[in-house]
Amino acid sequence: MPNSESDRALQLNNQLRKAGLSPDNFIEAGYTGVVLHSASTLFAGNQGVAEITGYSLEEIVGLNAWRLFPPASIPIVKERLTHLSEEPYQVLIQKKDGKQLMVELKGKNIDIAHEQFRAIQVKLVP
Questions:
Q1: Which residues contact 77 (CB under 8 A, 6 or more apart)?
Q2: Phi-psi region of 114 (alpha: psi -120 to 50; beta: other; left: phi over 0)
Q3: CATH second-level architecture of 4-124?
């Protein structure tokens, strides 16, 4: 049975696409992926994020964002979210297979359908 957050994520993803927007529109030069979220629910991602995380694009929509972070990274990410920081920072993420990778994240609030969301740009750190 689908949960309401997952249903909402699918609905927002569809609204985004109907508006002619996709996560690829938010990529800045040098970044390999973008994911859009509201609270802790992801509602859109691009192929770059799928490749980095190991989740398919279908799995990303509705995914709880905290599943992407090992426990040690969560306080760092929460602090950045609390202050709505737009400065890039490095943190470990955890792929679907459990492997951990260092990435650079850079967030920005955006308005979609009169709601505030967060676009997160993701770049692998060599």
A1: 69, 91, 105
A2: left
A3: 2-Layer Sandwich (3.30)
